[in-house]
Write a structure and sequence with these properties.
Blueprint: H1 22-54, H2 56-72, H3 74-77, H4 79-85, H5 89-99, H6 104-134, H7 140-158, H8 162-167, H9 169-183, H10 189-216, H11 222-249, H12 264-267, H13 270-280, H14 295-319, H15 327-357, E1 359-360, H16 364-383, E2 389-393, E3 406-410, H17 414-445, E4 448-449, H18 455-460
Parallel strand pairs: 1-4
Antiparallel strand pairs: 2-3
Length: 461
């Protein structure tokens, strides 16, 4: 209280915080969600642009599907064509949508499955329907239901058979659908025959448009994709082997890139190779690939490469392990290990060239002999490390001293380098199995001999 009878109140200088209203909070939240949505849309377009830039064939595939649908839609817009197929033209549109695939082989496979399954199921369905009608009204539903049960069960079971699953899985589903539709439709046989004729004609139109569009406009051949994948995997395998050994014996810790990790592409490539091989078997002869090209042999080459890739994966994991060999042992074995890995990678690179150019190389056996000689040299060098104690002179180890002394290394220190030696020798054996499979593929596909004289040269001689 002041002396003159007045009260004094001290108010602290604190900033007054005004809370936003409910509408203001809703506006801020809505604004944040809109910004997030716009950001997601922007990221989506960036990803789509990257995909289109990295592989323009995917954009072309979308254009081809649009062209096929435009062609089949002419049956709606042109009166003469519409009068020919009637309202069943919708089945041609559905056929284009479900049968048009990325590669020519996949498109032909689906088109053939859809057409053949529809014809087969329609024929059996009409036959069963006719038999049921002849047996009278009492037995008609029994026969129809029994036929649906038996055939649907048998067709479903056939999907578990690997050969059917690989090539005719889609056709089996279409068969079940078509047969069930015909059996329970309730139409008379005469109307069923007319319906089947219209259905088959529209499906034939749709499949024909799919096949010709896929083959004539920037075709993507599954066989060519499989061929490119195999020789690129051989190149990756060679680079991975060189990179792993170089990484193990390198003197500095500088980063040499991730080139030595190319073997990882082969570890899970079995499913993709099998799909491409199955689709390639449906394709007609094209380019360098003749009729009855040995696509199954590509799978055997891929299996051999995966077997080698597993060894390289083990070697790569050992390189990054905590247990390492002494530097003296590494320096003692560096030269022979590098020579062995280099000779093995040369064999793989030559096989990649053979597969890529589809010519039988005359250098392959020479590189294999060099690899075998490197293996023998490697074994001879490793015998020096098999004693209970290894004596390496300090001069041999690269240490500059005036007096020449010796350094003793216990036998347990040899185990890490012995593991590396075992893996490298195992890799060479698996490389030889790859050589065998590639040679079998070259023989079955009738690869041309490298530097084979032309017919004109032979006539001159």
């Amino acid at each position: 209280m002041a002396s003159n009878g007045e009260w004094k109140v001290n108010v602290s200088e604190e900033t007054l915080v005004i809370e936003p209203t409910v509408s203001k909070r809703m506006y801020i939240r809505l604004q944040g969600k809109i910004l997030k949505s716009l950001k997601r849309i922007g990221n989506f377009w960036v990803k789509a642009k990257n995909i289109a830039t990295s592989d323009p064939r995917k954009v072309i595939h979308g254009v081809k599907v649009g062209m096929a649908l435009s062609l089949v839609s002419l049956f709606y817009y042109m009166r003469p064509l519409y009068d020919g197929v009637g309202g069943n033209a919708m089945w041609a549109v559905m056929t284009v949508v479900v049968a048009f695939e990325y590669s020519v082989g996949a498109t032909i496979a689906k088109s053939f499955n859809r057409a053949s399954a529809t014809i087969l199921a329609g024929s059996i369905g009409v036959g069963v329907h006719w038999i049921a009608n002849q047996c009278g009204e009492e037995l008609e539903p029994v026969i129809l239901q029994a036929s649906v049960t038996i055939l649907a069960a048998a067709a479903t079971f056939s999907r578990f058979i690997p050969s059917v699953k690989a090539r005719f899985d889609y056709g089996v589903m279409v068969f079940i659908l078509t047969f069930s539709f015909v059996s329970v439709s309730g139409y008379r046989v005469e109307k069923l025959l007319e319906l089947a004729r219209n259905r088959v004609s529209t499906i034939a139109i749709g499949t024909s448009i799919c096949i010709f569009t896929s083959m004539l406009f920037y075709p993507v051949w599954a066989g060519n994709e499989l061929h490119n994948l195999v020789y690129k995997n051989l190149e990756r395998l060679a680079d991975s082997l060189d990179g792993c050994v170089t990484e193990y014996f390198k003197d500095s810790k500088e980063d040499r890139g991730r080139k030595h990790e190319g073997y990882k592409f082969m570890l899970n490539s079995k499913a993709g190779e099998e799909v491409m091989a199955n689709m390639a078997r449906w394709e007609p002869p094209h380019g360098r690939f003749k009729f009855r090209h040995p696509w199954k042999q590509y799978l055997k080459v891929g299996a051999s490469m995966r077997s080698c890739a597993y060894c390289i994966e083990t070697l790569s994991g050992f390189i990054n392990s905590e247990v390492q060999a002494p530097e003296l042992l590494k320096k003692h074995m560096k030269e022979v290990c590098m020579t062995l890995s280099s000779s093995s990678s040369n064999v793989l690179k030559e096989l990649a060239t053979t597969t890529k150019t589809m010519t039988k190389s005359t250098k392959t056996h020479l590189f294999v002999q060099e690899m075998n000689f490197a293996v023998q040299s490697f074994k001879n060098a490793f015998k020096d490390l098999s004693r209970q104690a290894l004596l390496l002179t300090e001069h041999e180890a690269g240490e500059e001293k005036t007096t020449q002394g010796t350094k003793t290394i216990p036998i347990i220190a040899i185990f890490p380098i012995a593991t590396t030696a075992t893996l490298l020798i195992e890799i060479t054996e698996r490389v030889e199995s790859i050589v065998t499979e590639v040679e079998n593929m070259a023989a079955q596909a009738e690869f041309e001999i490298e530097n084979k004289p032309s017919k004109c040269d032979q006539d001159l001689k």
